[in-house]
Amino acid sequence: MAAFDHSITMEQGNYDQEEVAKLHSLMNTRALRKKRIRKGVLVGLNIVFALFMLFPLLYSVSVSVMPSEELFTMDMNLLPSNPTFDNYVRAFTQVPLVRFILNSFLVAGCITLGQIITCSLAAFAFSFLEFKGKNVLFMLVMATMMVPGEAVIISNYLTVSSMNLLDTYIVLILPSLTSAMGIFLFRQFYMTFPISLYESARLDGCGNLRFIIKILIPLTKSAIGAMAVYTFINAWNMYMWPLLVTGSEEMRTVQIGISMLNSVDAQSITLMMAGVVAIILPSMVIFIVGQKQLISGMFQGAVKG
Amino acid sequence: MSELILKNVCKMYDKKQYAVRDFSLKIEDGEFVIFVGPSGCGKSTTLRMIAGLEEITSGELWIDKQLCNYVEPKDRDLSMVFQNYALYPQMTVYDNMAFALQIRKVPKKEIDKKVQEAASVLGIRHLLKQRPGALSGGQKQRVAIGSAIMREPKAFLMDEPLSNLDAKLRAQMRVELSELHKRLSATMIYVTHDQTEAMTLGTKIVVMKDGFIQQADTPKAVYEHPANLFVAGFIGSPSMNFFEGSIRKTDKGADFVLESGTALEIPEDRAFALLNEYRNKKVILGVRPEHFLSEITAKDPKADYTKRVLNGVITTREMLGAESMFYLEEASAGEFAARLPVETKGRTRDEMTLFVDMDRVHFFDAETEHNIFYRGGQQ
Predict the structure, then answer these.
(1) Torsion, CA B32, CA B37, CA B41, CA B42, rounded to 10
(2) Which domain CATH number covers B52?
(3) Per-residue pLDDT tens over the stretch A240-259
(4) Domain tally, chain B
């Protein structure tokens, strides 16, 4: 030990304090520069890829503020030279776009709410309750995911038309009130939920409904948020079903409304882009708001972690 | 408080495998009963059946002279403390403790009074406004116990409540639990795989293995008179040493003879019985590490202590502070452990001579593994 200590003092003796400090700062700046360069390269690469991915979106925004004569030239016009909001004004006046947006909001909102309620309740039964045929039933639910929507769309149409529901809000909402995917997502999430909390609640005298409302929902906010965003955007983007079951202009949703812009004035791509940008905004807002909910962290302290 | 009776309770999974079999036990008011056994012995399952979290396949559960097989968990009026605490993370400590009473629609003032009372008993008053996430393991466990005592249930069920705590905290909580039991004079049923907890906490220990009760008795009785080989080996740390051998008749009485030829003289009172039934038959001798002596401390003047000697080679020596553990190797019996005073001399690979306290050893039937001198216990 003593010999070891001795050798260290010897080594240090070769440098005086100033030299050591200089050496320190020299090595420090070198390490710092390396770090900065690495970070710069990463950020640069990210920006390039982001631009690449976002190009269609950014280009559609650019086109939507372009006068149409600027688009139909032989030149490469990435950015408008005379930006104008004329397209937006025309998009909102030529078709009842506001009405379409409200329709879509109503339909997507109801579907989201309905799916969250039905899927979470079903998933609760599939993960917390014990009953005969539970696994078989769950398999059946999962099996419905394998049937493509297009395969049953005609029979669904016949069903709702025989119920005289065509061209109403109900027909837009009703078939999507539950989804196997949602049940599956919720169940997977509940499987990770500490079962002892449920058992403890049962011993405390807490019924199933109270458990769901007071304990399960507050603790699974992040799953609900993720599910809500996913469902809302899916419902917002529905095309085939609303096209099939709605006839009047008042019942149209945005996705169909946009294609109406095209049919009224066959060549106006700038007009359509204005409409597209206008309806992308709500789903982006939903996503940005919902993203906060996606961040979990509610489980800290539930059980030993 | 109350009295619990379990009568031939069985639990079967998937109609083929028994998890618990013919579990019969009477738990008196105010008892602290410990279910102890290796993992998979059915102790937790039994507790969960009492709580109502598992269905009872067959048999009867009586709580306070009421058949409770089909009573809902919430109506059994039992409270349970879980291994992972099971606190509701979104609620404050106060709300966690008050939750069960709020559901039962107890007036707010009364709830408040009880929460404050329980919190001061457990020393968690300053934590009432915090959420479980901000608490340490020991504090969480205290809160869990707090919410359990709020309801003044018929019995407390505890499923390995201390196994997530570190060793020091565990020892501390053990003392507190013991005090709490005295203070509340409540019936407690406690599941653990830790035999130290079992020995120190319980007024009655139920040793289980493979779904069967092996022995149910006071800690002292289980330690001093184990019913069979399994209980003898499971209770006590380090565990009992076992030596295979046979009983041989001598002029004076009987000897226990190891395969290597070493003979140990059996005290008179037991020699006769052993000779009767086990002459020249295989038996297993059980000696606790503390029942080896490094020098003769003669208690029985008639006995010839030189005939109660075991030789071995020291393989390992552990210093425990007040005592030393010696691990020795005997020619035929293999390794065995002895707990000796710290001053005892001896180094690794030294030959060592130990006296066996033959008055306190146990004899087990080699076939049935029962303790030959076990005369039943209280059940």
Answers:
(1) 10
(2) 3.40.50.300
(3) 999 999 888 888 888 888 88
(4) 2
Query: Domain boundary residue among B199, B234, B269?
Result: B234
- Residues of A within 8 A of B82 (CB-CB) are 196, 199-200
Minimal Cβ distance to A196: which of B79, B82, B90? B82
B100 has a chain A CB within 8 A of its CB: yes
Kindly report the CATH number assigned to the domain that includes residue B249: 2.40.50.140
Looking at domain A94-294, does it have CATH number 1.10.3720.10?
A: yes
Which residue range is the domain that position B292 belongs to? Answer: 241-365
Asked whether residue B343 is assigned to any structural domain, the reply reads: yes
Q: Which two tokens stand for residue B361?
A: 């050893």
Using the Cβ of B133 and the Cβ atoms of chain A, whether some distance falls under 8 Å is answered with yes
Among A17-26, A283-292, B50-59, whose mean pLDDT is lowest?
A283-292
Q: Are strands B212-217 and B204-209 parallel, antiparallel or unpaired?
A: antiparallel
| Shortest CA gap A188–chain B (Å) | 20
Whether residue B303 contacts residue B252, with contact meaning beta carbons closer than 8 Å, is answered with no
Name the one residue in this structure whose structure tokens are 């789903």: A283
Q: What is the mean pLDDT of each run of 10 residues along chain B (379 residues)?
A: 87 88 93 93 93 92 91 90 89 92 91 92 90 89 90 90 87 89 91 90 93 93 93 90 90 86 87 86 92 70 73 90 89 87 85 88 91 68
In this structure, the answer to whether residues B289 and B217 fall within a common structural domain is no
Residues from chain A contacting residue B170 (CB–CB below 8 Å): none
Asked if B130 has any chain A CB less than 8 Å from its own CB, the reply is no
Residues B187 and B273 grouped into a single domain: no
pLDDT classification of A87: cutoffs 50, 70, 90: confident
Tell me the one-letter amino acid at B355: F
**d(C-alpha A101, C-alpha A278), whole Å:** 9
